[in-house]
Design brief:
313 residues, alpha/beta, 9 helices, 40% helix, globular
Amino acid sequence: MNTAAPQISIIIPTQRRPVGLEVAARSVFAQTDVDLSRIELVIVDNDQAPSARDLVTRLSGDAPFPVTYVHEAAPGVANARNAAMAAAQGDWIAFLDDDEEAGPGWLNALLQAQARFDADAVFGPVRGRAPASVVAHWAYLEWFFSRLGPETAQVLDGYYGCGDSLVRRSSMPHPTAPFSPARNHSGGEDDLLFGQMKQAGARFAWSPEAWVWEDPQPERLTLSYTLSRAFAYGQGPTEAAVAESDWTAVARWMVIGLGQGIVEGLAAGLLALTGSDRAVFRLDKAMRGLGKTFWWGPFRKTFYGHTPAARAE
């Protein structure tokens, strides 16, 4: 038996998504062209009750490498990721969400890009997969839940989110709690982390072969959700500038955002009058612009940190 600490820890946070969690975990079990003795899977359950424990126990029996279950009752996406980081033993951390399904060559592609570019973090594309039953705005919804990037592997000037990434633990600002609890409810804890890493000189890379599917939850397949989320995404650059106390950048982002909101909002209105399906794409850009401008207190959005009420059995 290999008792050495795994070199790669794959982390999947989850909260009451048993179907998605099983798909994500089994896609990790099916990875090819990697040394399985170097891998462990850490699943962190962010439900108040340990509702995923039995499923993880069952999945562990089919796993080709160790699986660790972590129960983090304190709600919040940063709390969940930090709890998993504290339990993980790897020098490298691969992140996958519980609504994602990795292709069989996913982890190998991330590792290959890391070695090629000596990167501290590698990101891959996400392919949104809206069900055929969705009629309204299907193209927009698939685009919204996708992550696009360069067609070739390369070094990046910027960064993407955690889902579908490989990160060097030693390049994080803290080895076991790198995610800010201040972002528990709004999200963007990964943007803040990678922003801090970039400021410290980290190197980021992109691997187009390291793709994953994303299957959004049905309640997220609405314009009310996506446009609200677009607004929150827009807040990211301004909030990052605030975190760095770069008030010149804050002012610049706010002005840019206001202009974007006005121009894209007018374009969306004109396209809507013609019945064009492109109207919602421009409305999405308008919301991202307004998020850059209205980023403080009462305008902050909450997407995480709420555990659904338990259902009677």
